[in-house]
Amino acid sequence: MVHQITVGLLPTLASAQVEKAIKRQFRKKYDEDDVTLSFVPFDVFQTSTSSVDVFVVDSLFLSDLVKQNKVSPLEGSVSSSDFLPHSLEAAQVEGKTYGIPQLVSADYLFYYTDDSAAHSVVNSVKTSSELAQQTTSSLALFYPNVFNSTTLALEYAKIIGLDKNLPTSLDQVNQDAVNVLRKILNNAQISGVNNLIISPSGRNNMNLLVSADRLQNTSLENVNVKALETAGKRSIYVSVAVLSSSIAAEKASIAKDVLQIITSAEIAQVFAQNVQKEYFVPARVSAAEEASKQSSVAKQVVSLLQDASSTQVVRLTESIANIKTAGKLLKQYVQRKAVATMRCLAGDIVEKANSGHPGMPIGMSAVAYVLWKYYINVSPSNPHWIGRDRFLLSNGHGCALIYLLLHLAGFNLTMDDLKSFRQLDSKTPGHPEFGHTPGVDATTGPLGQGIGNSVGMAIAQAHLSARFNDVEGLNPFDHYTYVFHGDGCLMEGVALEAIAQAGHHKLGRLIFFYDDNQITIDGETELAFTEDVTKLFEAYGWGVQTVHDGDSNLLEIRNAIENARKSSDSRPQLIRLKTTIGFASLAQGTEKVHGSPLGEKSLVHLKKVSGIPETEKFYVPEDVYAEFKQISSRGEAKYQKWSQSVKQYQETKGEKGQILASIIEGKLPDFASKLPKYTVNDKPMATRKTSQLTLNAVAPVVTNLMGGSADLTPSNLTWMDCTKDFEPKDRTGRYLRFGVREHSMVSIGNGLALYGAIIPFVSTFLIFGGYALGAIRVGALSHLGLIYIMTHDSIGLGEDGPTHQSIEMLPLLRSIPNLNLIRPADGNETSGAYKIALESRQTPTVLSLSRQDVPQLPNTSFEGVEKGAYVIVPENKDVKLDLILTGSGTEVSLCVEAAAKLQGKLNVRVVSFPSWFLFEKQSQEYRRSVFPSGVPVVSVEAAHVRGWAQYSHSQIGMTTFGASAPYKLAYQKFGITVENIINKGQKVVEHYRSNNLVPHDLVAQL
Ligand SMILES: Cc1ncc(C[n+]2csc(CCOP(=O)(O)OP(=O)(O)O)c2C)c(N)n1
Ligand SMILES: [Mg+2]
User: Which residue has the higher pLDDT, 293 or 612?
Assistant: First the structure.
């Protein structure tokens, strides 16, 4: 006779592989001609038990099924080699065995207020199911850590290896379970502990309660471990294979064999690899509401339950590829709705823009939450407060994160601003821009720059703190610099250079959060980034900690931050967070979520599994706003206190107090009167030398002038006699030894400028500025008043040859918007250039300076430099102007000499042209007065001629690389000589005259 046995598998357990494996086992005993097996997904909430013969059910529901007469007791003994004797309890109701337990364990968390009431409830129930329903005002069961069989099997598989060694003894199970559960429960929450926690154990499922009193003064970790040790002694097995009560008698013995197959270790292993996961959170709304009055954690559970209306079992079912994700989510959801909100908000922001990077903000939401909620000190109403903690997103592509943080923390960034992410003129551009969005501390996006900036900020903090921390209890610079960065930043040279300097300087107030998600745009970091980051940082003198679950272990994150802050007096700190990019979205953990919107399906999935209403967009519940309120209240209070301290400092410290006030306000002292002035009778000097004199004239009065050179101090002439080196043992020095690290020097210089109370300068040979272009342009874009002292600015450096001779840097730098390149011609122009550079706090200034001597020229002036270009040798006003010679820096003196020699032949004017940037800011009238219409202009500059056609009709300059030779010979070789200027000048004038042509107008009409 042919029997047909229908097997109901939990939807989460049903898969083709599982069915195949069960069938394979079954065929060992039964012939297909006699018995056929068919499978249906079985859901105790939806499927009728009469339609199946055998099914798997969570033991929580077993007693209800017995009451409803839906399952049959198993007659006789049950045997299975893999069956764990003590787990039988979960399959029993009132002494009768109804099924065979699978390898499964569960743990419970209780909220309770009254020991004896709780005890009596616990003693009155017999099964976990009953217990789940027994919620009173003094006892509520929260069930956030349910393992289904597969979870456990998976965990076991991980612990013991997927082989035959499934646990066979109670002790072994206990130990494994304790280990697994300990790991998970320890992650459970950060706060709201006292009235939480207890585990079922003992005869009546539970015989031990830990009172709230006993929990006091005990760290959460210890409490959880204690509870777990108890819990592990008698784990509850929740997944049970049972017989339907409607099964026909003659099929019963075959069905029992099926039960045993389903519960065998072989099948458990297949399950482990092939299931979808499912989670239950049973609890009653009413009890939870009661509990929520006293527990913030319970409060969050209530909101979860409310979303599920009056159901007693909140059910999260999703085909989640990674079981860990679900576990982490559930845990975190119960604890921290805020993090879930942040993740979904990030997803929405990018989705609406239809552009952007969701992976990083979603992956870093947990750490961002912990850092901002508990630590960061910022004042939303005073975003530029100098005493605030700095927060940099060096992985600036993830800027949806900083925007939503600023919004939630109460900065002037509205929900509408979040909705206009990446749109024209919005406050939320595609990468964070300093000065554009309140609360953004640095322009980031070009990877590695934020890291460099942060080192500059930490130097500023360390220096100012060393100088102004001299009144007990008042330290206006007592804050941290926090940096988020990803894999990408750590591959950038600029970052490694800066990290080396941070370690060297022992910048203990600098804390990095590394988004160690092992993914970049191309795919896994395995492709190109396999160095041992921990060892790397340690070698650079950093302290390193690893957070193993950066996705959801808020406690682990918090502990790491605590440690980092504590140990931060000596070494900068790296917190390496193992995270999942795009956590809980469909393509989590892959490069697919790095840089494009999740897509509707994935976003809905993220919301569903995060417990955020899936139809809502830009959803921020009131309690999440409330959660973030703490940031602004803490920050505003700190700001007030800080203001008081600064006031008090000023009052007690006289002149030093005044200095503090001025540097905080960004006021410059009177330095202009100190600037050296020259006459034509003064000796010729290289402009790097006049720079040195100027620097040393102003440095004693401009006490927040701070900077140095990339190992070229004796050549750049940047040493300041009035100060000393900034070094770990004495941070009051203002001279920075950057080492041979040009790129990070500029990035650090930008950081010093971003910090706000420092006027920074950096220095190297002009040509090596090319190494730092990435940082130079970000500085200009960010409106940072960094001063570049760039010497050896042309072939005039001579013998070092073409490798060191800048040809291209002048045109290159002139093409960067908001960058003021000044190439002074002599001492007066150098002083004038310094005046502009020091006053220019929103625009970087590059001082292009010579190695070779130049004479002090007639009529050079500060005012002239301020105009950008001006007449230093006027023509004879009585006759028609024939020719203008113009140029910058060292070549101006050649023009002056040529003009003198042309006297009597041509009526010539010489225009010194130190700054295109400043000239272009002048009125058209002024510009026309310098370059009148119809007069031919010849320009002379020992750099590439590119661009000069805008201001001259004929150019003398470079079009090739230079040459290694004494500088005068190099100038001769390339025709940058007085003779050539005379020659060319005459030719140009002759060309226009003889052809009866009018030179084109150089000053734009429109
Ligand atoms: C200097 C620089 N080079 C390249 C890029 C383009 N880019 C943006 S993000 C990224 C990969 C970053 O990887 P990671 O930091 O690990 O970020 P995740 O994918 O983890 O968010 C690249 C190459 C850039 N922004 N800056
Ligand atoms: Mg990455």
Answer: 612
pLDDT averaged over every residue in the chain: 82
Mean pLDDT over 374-394 rounds to: 97
> What is the token pair recorded at 80?
């299975």
How would DSSP label each residue in 324-355? HHHHHHHHHHHH-HHHHHHHHHHHHHHHHHT-
Q: Is the pLDDT of residue 263 over 90?
A: no
pLDDT digit string, tens, across residues 419-458: 999 999 999 999 999 999 999 999 999 999 999 999 999 9
Q: Which atom of ligand 1 is nearest to the CA of 489?
A: 15
Question: What are the CA-CA distances from residue 418 to residues 348, 378, 410, 428, 739 (Å)?
Answer: 9, 20, 13, 7, 42
Q: Whose CA is closest to atom 21 on ligand 1? A: 360
Instruction: Locate 737 and state its tokens.
Output: 């030894």
Q: What is the residue-wise DSSP string for 216-280?
A: TTS-HHHHHHHHHHHHHHTPBP-EEEEEETT--GGGHHHHHHHHHHHTSHHHHHHHHHH--EEEE
Give per-residue pLDDT as tens, 831-854: 999 999 999 999 999 999 999 999
Closest CA to 99 of 211, 210, 256, 277: 256
**Do 693 and 676 contact (CB within 8 A), yes or no?**
yes
Task: Report CA(595)–ligand 2 centroid distance (Å).
Answer: 11
Q: Whole-angstrom Cα distance, residue 467 to residue 491? A: 35
Residue numbers annotated as active site: 742
Say if residue 136's pLDDT is above 60: no
Q: With bands split at pLDDT 50, 70 and 90, how would you rate the model's confidence at 194?
A: very low
Distance CA 85, CA 100 (A): 10
Q: What's the gap in Å between 521 CA and the centre of ligand 1?
A: 7
Answer yes or no: is the C-beta of 900 below 6 A from any ligand 1 atom. no
Scan for tokens 């330290």, then name that residue: 475
Size (the chain), residues: 1006
- Predicted pLDDT of residue 13: 66
Q: Is 397 in the pocket of ligand 1 (CB under 6 A)?
A: yes
Closest ligand 1 atom to Cα of 774: 1
**CA 549 distance to own-chain centroid:** 17
Helix (H) or strand (E) holding 121: helix 115-124
Encode pLDDT of 890-922 as tens digits. Answer: 999 999 999 999 999 999 999 999 999 999 999
Residue from 447, 485, 519 to probe ligand 1 pocket by mutation (most atoms less than 8 Å from CB): 447
The whole-number average pLDDT for the span 343-367 is 97
Q: And the tokens for 410? A: 């109460």
CB-based burial of residue 801 (10 Å sphere; 0-12 exposed, 13-18 middle, 19+ buried)?
A: middle
Q: Ligand 1 pocket check: which of 367, 395, 483 to mutate, most ligand atoms within 8 Å of Cβ? A: 395
Residue 101 has what pLDDT? 72
Q: How far is the CA of 536 from the centre of ligand 2 (A)?
A: 17
Ligand 1 contact via 316 beta carbon (within 6 Å): no
CB of 581 within 6 A of ligand 1: the answer is yes
- Percent of the chain's residues with pLDDT above 70: 76
Please state the pTM of the whole predicted model.
0.74
Distances from the Cα of 646 to the Cα of 34, 314, 467, 657, angstroms: 91, 54, 14, 8
Average pLDDT over residues 602-617: 86
**Would you say the CB of residue 445 lies under 6 angstroms from ligand 1?**
yes
Ligand 1 centroid to residue 783 C-alpha, Å? 24
Ligand 1 centroid–CA 491 distance in Å is 9
DSSP 599-622: -HHHHHHHHHHHTS-TT-SS---H
Residue 756 and residue 777: Cα distance in Å, rounded? 19
Distances (CA, A) of 597 to 76, 582, 833, 934: 59, 10, 48, 57
**Residue 398 alpha carbon, nearest atom of ligand 1:** 21
Confidence at residue 89, expressed as pLDDT on a 0 to 100 scale: 63
